[in-house]
Design brief:
InterPro entries: DnaJ, DnaJ_C, DnaJ_domain, DnaJ_domain_CS, HSP40/DnaJ_pept-bd, HSP_DnaJ_Cys-rich_dom, HSP_DnaJ_Cys-rich_dom_sf, J_dom_sf. Belongs to the DnaJ family. Its cofactor is Zn(2+). The chain folds into three domains: 120 residues, Helix Hairpins, CATH 1.10.287.110; 110 residues, HSP40/DNAj peptide-binding domain; 73 residues, HSP40/DNAj peptide-binding domain (Sandwich). The chain is built from eleven helices and 15 strands. The strands form six sheets. Strands 10-11-15-14 form a four-stranded mixed β-sheet. It is α+β, with helices and mostly antiparallel strands. The protein starts with a helix and ends with a helix. It is 26% helix and 26% strand. The structure holds zinc ion (2 copies).
Length: 380
């Protein structure tokens, strides 16, 4: 899909239309709001489309190149010499796209009015740390009811030797970066299909810090961070399912020189249940019943999420018939609505007959014999 289709607009859309369409979609698919498994991917897609179409220069290049050429160039990074473009492009796509994906926090604050994310200064030009994904294993019950879990994972944290400064010597002053003169940003000229444009990018020499460490710390090579083992406590909402993700802000890798940490994404892996099978918010349970129970009806005890419950099996219940117990399924994530518990009737034939049963079944056969026989009807 091209970027216009992703945003649900046409090529003639105005800047205002592009923006409003993006905002509408981003709100719908923001990972903080939408817990569908593919929402995050969709959100990234929307954000990428908007990054390009909202920037007149990028939009111009995109319109000129066409979607597939542009995407191909983007994937090849534009950085290399030729890549099939005869060296015409010397644009570094990472600079153009800020690493391919804009900080979701900015979008979040823009969309939802900001606030609540203190300590994440927008003016901070230093790159924040990377996001991390960790698999969070849950039992069936933990997924259904929500749980407090301690996630344990490897991540970059502040270097303990230099306390995040990156410097081996407490007293040594950092020197001002010679390339950006302490600004953290430099202007870069790029040409794109002949169109030249200037761009402000993060200074490659100091990574936006504006300063250079004089005497780098040996433990962290002057980066101010080291890989370590972290644990984070999370409260998972009720109703999560396999493959769903939860974002834990600021618990990913810390950035270099103590700059903001990325986010941690817990990806849920849920254990199977002994009896219940789950499909979305509905639960399924196989319930074995006998021939007399099926024919005459009965009241049986079945397990539910809230303990055992008596359920009436109506007279004449057939094999594979389903009995729905409304609102006894799983609560949907971020919603009050609940699925159902569906009983799958599993009619069991007796494997062995006692002498008395043998007698009764024989008697039954005689009683219902000739005129009512199904076979007789079929072949009459
Ligand atoms: Zn260090
Ligand atoms: Zn610099």
């Amino acid at each position: 899909m091209d970027y216009y289709s992703i945003l649900g607009i046409t090529k003639s859309a105005t800047a205002t239309e592009i923006k409003s369409s993006y905002k509408k979609l981003a709100k719908k698919y923001h990972p903080d709001v939408n817990k569908e498994p593919d929402a995050q991917e969709k959100f990234k897609e929307i954000s990428r489309a908007y990054q390009i179409l909202s920037d007149p220069e990028k939009k111009k290049a995109y319109d000129q190149m066409g979607h597939s050429n542009f995407e191909q160039a983007r994937k090849q990074g534009f950085g290399g010499s030729n890549q099939g473009f005869g060296g015409a492009y010397n644009v570094n796509f990472d600079d153009l796209f800020g690493g391919g994906f804009r900080d979701p926090f900015d979008i979040f604050s823009e969309l939802f009015g900001g606030g609540g994310f203190s300590g994440r200064g927008r003016n901070n030009r230093q790159k924040r740390g990377e996001d991390i994904e960790v698999v969070a294993k849950l039992t069936f019950e933990e997924a259904v009811f929500g749980a407090e879990k301690e996630l344990s994972y490897k991540a970059f944290d502040k270097c303990t030797t230099c306390k995040g400064t990156g410097s081996a010597d407490d007293k040594a002053e950092d020197t001002t970066c010679s390339q950006c003169h302490g600004q953290g940003q430099v202007q870069q000229e790029s040409s794109f299909l002949g169109a030249r444009f200037a761009q402000i990018v993060t200074c490659p020499q100091c990574q936006g810090r504006g300063k250079i460490v004089k005497n780098p710390c040996k433990t962290c090579n002057g980066t101010g961070r080291e890989r370590t083992h972290l644990t984070t406590k999370v409260k998972t909402p009720a109703g999560v399912d396999n493959g769903m993700q939860m974002r834990i802000p600021g618990k990913g890798n810390i950035g270099e020189f103590g700059s903001n940490a990325g986010d941690l994404y817990a990806v849920f892996k849920v254990e199977d249940h002994k009896y219940f099978t789950r499909h979305g918010s509905n639960l399924y349970l196989d319930v074995p019943i006998t021939i007399p129970q099926a024919v005459l009806g009965d009241t049986i005890e079945v397990p539910t999420l809230e303990g055992k419950k008596n359920v009436k099996i109506p007279k004449g219940t057939n094999h594979r018939q389903q009995i729905k117990l409304s609102n006894l399924g799983v609560t949907q994530v971020n919603s009050r609505s609940r699925g159902d518990l569906i009983l799958n009737i599993d009619l069991k034939l007796p494997e062995k007959l006692s002498a008395e049963e043998q007698k009764l079944y024989t008697k039954l056969k005689e009683v219902e014999s000739k005129p009512k026989s199904i076979l007789n009807k079929l072949f009459a």
